[in-house]
Amino acid sequence: MYKRQHRSRVAESRRLTLKSWDYGNLRVDTLIAPMSVLTNVLGLLVAIAFGGSGQGVEQIVVAFTYYSNATQIMFEFNQIYRRLETSMTEAAQFTELLLDPPTVLDPAEPEAPAPRDTGIRFEAVTFAHAGAEPIFEGLDLEVPAGARVGLVGRSGGGKTTLTRLLLRMSDLDGGRVLIGGQDISRLRQADLRALIAYVPQEPAMFHRSLRDNIAFARPGATDAEIRAAAEAAHVTEFADQLPEGFATLVGERGVKLSGGQRQRVALARAILRDAPVLLLDEATSALDSESEILVQDALWRLMDGRTALVVAHRLSTVAGMDRLVVLDRGRVVEQGTHGDLLAADGAYAKLWQHQSGGFLGENAEPAPDDSPPPAAPTALPEPDEPAGART
């Protein structure tokens, strides 16, 4: 059934493409280009024919040049009209997109946000994208208040989808998600997202100043607060070297910044937002080793006292979490601390061994009396903190 639905969507997309003005213009171009060449050749022949033997080469060249310029203007008018036609079509398609009703709506009678704590619970969650097979079927997962939990596993296991469901980017097909005992579907989306600081793998940047991009997390923040968040995320290390400092425009989608710099800006946003729940989706994937060491320290401090859900493919970045949850094809296959999962010698241990030595050809099984594999070189210890510092 899902394959038939997929083929139907592909066929519909192809049909719309064939009807689009862009495709029509492409077909017109295949006719206009040779017509332009033939017209100029015809103009040259006319100039030679009507020039007669009494005319010199100069007169023929001048006549042909006038003719060529006249026909070129006519073809340029054709191009202008078609560009206008294409622009109007694209504007109409964009308008249709804006007029599409949203699929995720606030409840008719929303509840006021009053969570008893910041614990997260997924209860019998069932979800599938439109026309696709279910990703989750009856998933149960609990993240205690103040806990730091890492989501790991192979690609396509549902890690990022789980964070999007917590943000209520999509509605569930079954079950519910709770924060502090409150069903998030009963909250206004603005109230829900005010509880969460989210750092995506590819953060969105706007063609505004660096300061404005950080302040996007909390528009009313003062310059001192923005500066403090930037320092905590090590943004100042490159911001102070920019031509205009924090007033420098970062370009559309942040094209003037590197991938690592954009992720630091996203971390500064999360620090500035100061929300009780923290979601990190591959927040350090674009950082080099030196930058990661700096940012990891900021992350540990940011997670202190907050409920943190961290998605990571590089296991060394989450080895120090309170608990690791291994997802595979929408199911929780293992969970526990880093040491417990290595000792269990299950899916997590195999992933860890693959990342720490598998690429070097060390595929031999360890002897029974061998100690667990050593930590990867990029693994970072959790900073020391006094007993009882975290709640």
Structure description:
α7 crosses α9 and α9 runs parallel beside α10. The protein has 391 residues and is an alpha/beta fold. Strands 6-7-8-3-9-10 form a six-stranded mixed β-sheet, sandwiched between helices. The protein has a four-stranded antiparallel β-sheet with strand order 2-1-4-5, with no helix packed on it. It has twelve helices and ten strands. β4 and β5 form a beta hairpin. The protein is elongated and about 100 Å long. It has a domain of 98 residues.
Task: Give the helix/strand layout.
Layout: H1 2-19, H2 21-51, H3 57-99, E1 120-127, E2 136-143, E3 148-152, H4 159-166, E4 174-179, E5 182-183, H5 189-194, E6 196-199, H6 210-215, H7 223-232, H8 236-239, H9 259-273, E7 277-281, H10 289-303, E8 307-311, E9 323-328, E10 331-336, H11 338-344, H12 347-356
Helix pairs in contact: 2-3, 7-9, 9-10, 11-12
Task: Supply database-style keywords.
six-stranded mixed β-sheet, alpha/beta, four-stranded antiparallel β-sheet, disordered C terminus, 391 residues
SSE string: HHHEEEHEEHEHHHHEHEEEHH
Number of helices: 12
**Radius of gyration from the alpha-carbon trace, in angstroms:** 30 Å
Share of helix, binned: 40-55%
What structural category characterises the helix and strand content?
Answer: alpha/beta
How far the N terminus sits from the C terminus, by CA atoms, comes to 48 Å
